[in-house]
Amino acid sequence: MTIPFHTNSRQHHALAHELTSALATADLTDDSAFNREVQHFEQRLARYAGSRFAVGTASGTDALTIALTALDLPRGGEVILCGFGFFASAAAIVRAGLTPVLVDTQSEGYVIDPAAAEAAITSRTVALLPVHMFGEAAHMRRLSQLAVDHGIALVEDCAQALGAYHGDHAVGTFGDSAAVSFNWSKHLSCTSNGGAVLTNDEHQIETLQALRAYGSTSGFWHPLFGLNSRLNPFEARVLAHKLPHLDSWISRRRTIAERYWTNLAGVAVALPPVPEGMSTHVYHKFTVAHPDRDRLRHHLKAHGIGSMVCYPHLLGDHPPIAAVSRSEDLTHAKQRAATALSIPIWPELTNDEVDRICQHIDDFCGAS
Ligand SMILES: *Cc1c(COP(=O)(O)O)cnc(C)c1O
């Protein structure tokens, strides 16, 4: 039996009856039902996320773009983010007419180093964009203090971290706004694409809603340059049914992570840092590191185990980002890109499957 790197099929099997009846009972004859589906989910999501408001969008990438655009920052202004990450975070900055400035990760783990962020602040800096990479909350207390001290905006990329906390506060509640994603691979997933902007600031709501609807505020009047990016109401319905399960899925992800730590103790593979202090981890991904990462990946593949290199290239290496960004020292980030390997951690994995994955990692490390 192969173990895919990621699958929703066991999860959707378990919820098959609930999800198919939710979709089958959507009332296509009621024109207003569709707005209601989206609003219903937005309210549930906001409550779960500890935010006052949520604005559904067609994707997490659009949510980030819209969140940045709504702040009306000076064109070309610099936005600081970690140089190790997923393309969409940097692409959203560029699409919002801003300039990515890429800084290093901490010496351990995969989130932005607050000291590196501070060192990169210039008179052109307009915002910080921390990404809670792989589900680990970044150091939001220090980062929000930086934003306040320098009078710059703070937008969180929570695409991989819905449900994570820093201190007493959920990620997504520290700054001006935040983006979440519900794409197929996320830990709260719909069937194709979806996203949302979270904010506590009621003054942004009208702008955010306009930006997802062609920038229109009323009947064919467009004061803003918006996207056409609304959350699909069928996806909203699926998400509303899945959201109540999210905490138990996160809890199972944590149990699997503990099993990895126990089984892989003493094995020559670097494990992700145990979240310490104030930050919690929702294990969107469980990412190990090995100097011979590509051979480890092939070894696992030969034994029917999927894995994924998240991420093999630094953000500043992708041509459309390279052309318009600035990179600071990225020593740790480069190391991550060269050695990181994400292994399966979807919540429906059995303990036996986790043990099998560990056994093959152990075999590889023992032999190499
Ligand atoms: C998935 C992801 C996005 C983009 O979300 P989509 O819904 O796929 O557009 C942005 N940032 C990060 C960190 C992501 O993992």
Write the layout of secondary structure elements.
Blueprint: H1 9-14, H2 16-24, H3 33-49, E1 53-57, H4 60-70, E2 78-82, H5 87-95, E3 99-103, H6 114-119, E4 125-128, H7 140-150, E5 153-157, E6 165-166, E7 169-170, E8 177-181, E9 195-199, H8 205-211, H9 233-242, H10 246-264, E10 286-289, H11 293-302, H12 319-322, E11 326-327, H13 331-339, E12 340-343, H14 351-367
Parallel strand pairs: 2-3, 2-4, 3-11, 4-5, 5-8
Antiparallel strand pairs: 1-9, 6-7, 8-9, 10-12
Helix pairs in contact: 2-9, 3-9, 4-5, 10-14
The chain binds pyridoxal-5'-phosphate.
Pyridoxal-5'-phosphate binds next to helix 4 and helix 5.
List its traits.
39% helix, 8-stranded mixed sheet, globular, 368 residues, alpha/beta
Can you offer a commentary on this structure?
By secondary structure, this protein is α/β, with parallel strands linked by helices. It has 2 domains: 9-244, Type I PLP-dependent aspartate aminotransferase-like (Major domain) (Aspartate Aminotransferase, domain 2, 3-Layer(aba) Sandwich); 246-367, Aspartate Aminotransferase, domain 1. The chain has 14 helices and 12 strands. The strands form 3 sheets. An 8-stranded mixed sheet has the order 1-9-8-5-4-2-3-11, with helices on both faces. The protein has a two-stranded antiparallel sheet with strand order 6-7. A two-stranded antiparallel ribbon has the order 10-12. Strand 2 (78-82), helix 5 (87-95) and strand 3 form a beta-alpha-beta unit. Helix 3 packs parallel to helix 9 and helix 4 (60-70) packs parallel to helix 5 (87-95).
